[in-house]
């Protein structure tokens, strides 16, 4: 009876802690998004009421766009924390990513913080999303900078490592074996035990209001978990902080460096026709408008069954541009498979803001580019360049 009561008490405590975390999460989301929506709605309202001053309209629209981008960053970090972010994994050498990204990190921490790289030349490759890795490094660098208001040293170290079974007792989802270790250390204020225990929680922050969202470390945590790895914090008050990221070693060969030079905007060359499949009317209208500006002709459908009807007809269709999550029982990935069965030479571009469980059994094919929402016209043009080779 005593054991049963203890288990019941522990279950009630766990449920209480979960509800507190959910309340903190939803409160943080509401706070951040209401602030951003106030900027967006207020600026658009002023544009609508007085649209005759081009300079004023441009200034207000730029402010609204900046707020919208910040909103997109918040949702991206939330999806990363919950491991719902759609990843485009590559087999890479983390050393190369860190070297390529070093200049950005130096700008982020400022002149008062010295960055030192201690990179193992024999580092094994890992399989991860390079963009998410860079976001994680940037979040760690910014956190370290804020922990060193008077300046200090930020050290980024890489080496090959190994996790034994006894080190993973609290992580039954991980297997013992070879890992690549990336450590970001600072000489800052450090954390006490209470702060250290909550540091990965979304919207938990020790910074002043307006100085941080509390999503930086949660993005790092979500990224590492989704990559199949392990993250841990070593810190003491007044003695600096080290964040250790254990990433599973890959047996594949690392890919070559990505091109650095931006390519010019790609416009339709010979009247290509794009079939746009989107169930949200406003998003569909925006996509059609953007494609029109790029010189593409468009056809539209609001669900997969309607798109298949058009693909089975005689109309010219060069590219299928479809949302992933749609009503009607067929998602964008399934639609792309059926579409290429009907038209073997069809090019496909998928887009999504949040896939939910849509990709649990249907992963995005490796040869199909994915455009994340929200997107702008130029980002759409870049993805169409990839689609068209």
What does this structure look like?
With 389 residues, this protein is α/β, with parallel strands linked by helices. The chain has three domains: 59 residues; 159 residues, Heat Shock Protein 90; 115 residues, Rossmann fold. 44% of the residues lie in helices and 19% in strands. The chain has ten helices and twelve strands. The strands form three sheets. The protein has a five-stranded mixed sheet with strand order 2-4-5-7-6, with helices on one face. It has a five-stranded parallel sheet with strand order 9-8-10-11-12, with helices on both faces. A two-stranded antiparallel sheet has the order 1-3. Helix 7 links the parallel strand 8 and strand 9. The chain is globular and about 65 Å long.
Give a brief description.
The protein is 44% helix and 19% strand. With 389 residues, it is of the alpha/beta class.
